[in-house]
């Protein structure tokens, strides 16, 4: 199984704004005072388009889907939370915490991929769990080490343990389960998505170990990464707040590997961390300030990796 892909899906926003339904437990979101909604969306579109251009310039196969105004989907720019695409032709659909995010799941996106020659053989649909108030938000909640058959999950209101274990059984992953925290107004609160404090590359892992308050859990997670011969690159909670955990390794022309992140994540890294990362792949960064502030998500959240077979 490959850990990285050359193909991704990205959704271009039409009504991007701060989603009041996700702000209850995504403490990274901020209201940008004094900006009209249309201005916020225009800025987000500009950041999106520049980001896509940078990815395509190095040979990443980006399928851009235009969002529609029919549904009120302010977070549609983060497709990795509702869908994942797998090498065996499976597509997984995930239950979402915010009601207005459930409308992001669009069958026509799967049709577009099939038109491009990707093969979908089976849809694993976990979305009925929403009726019971149970959520697992795709590769935001679970980080897949596809090559080593492990899935990492920081439990939270958006990442249910039982459903995560069910996913691991269905897709044949060994579960690595822990809790990760951030300090909000002096209190330790659960981080809403695993992928803001951790990134898995082919030969490296970026992680904020300080977010894992339980020492045994922290050791267990780090031991798992080291057992798979990944170089562990530690980041701080301050860097997590700049979305330095929200990176993704993808491949461009000639299978060249890139570590994709936002400009704020890149700027927050020390020269030593940059040196560690650049041993593994070239860094590609793009400014996503508006998207990060209003959406509380960053570069990794914007890319749904496509591992489907292609005919």
Summed up:
InterPro entries: Amdntrnsf_FN0238. The protein has 311 residues and is α/β, with parallel strands linked by helices.
Describe this structure as you would to a colleague.
- This protein has nine helices and 17 strands.
- With 311 residues, it is an alpha/beta fold.
- A three-stranded mixed β-sheet has the order 2-1-17, covered by helices on one side. Strands 3-4-5 form a three-stranded mixed β-sheet, with no helix packed on it.
- The chain is globular and about 45 Å long.
Ranges where pLDDT stays below 50 over 5 or more residues in a row are none
Main-sheet strand order equals 2-1-17
**Range of strand content:** 15-25%
Q: Helices and strands: which structural class?
A: alpha/beta
Order of helices and strands: EHEEEHEHEEHEEEEEHEHEEHHEHE
Tell me the quaternary state.
single chain
- What is the tally of helical segments? 9
Organism: Flavobacterium artemisiae
Keywords: Hydrolase
Pfam family, one: DDAH_eukar
GO molecular function: hydrolase activity
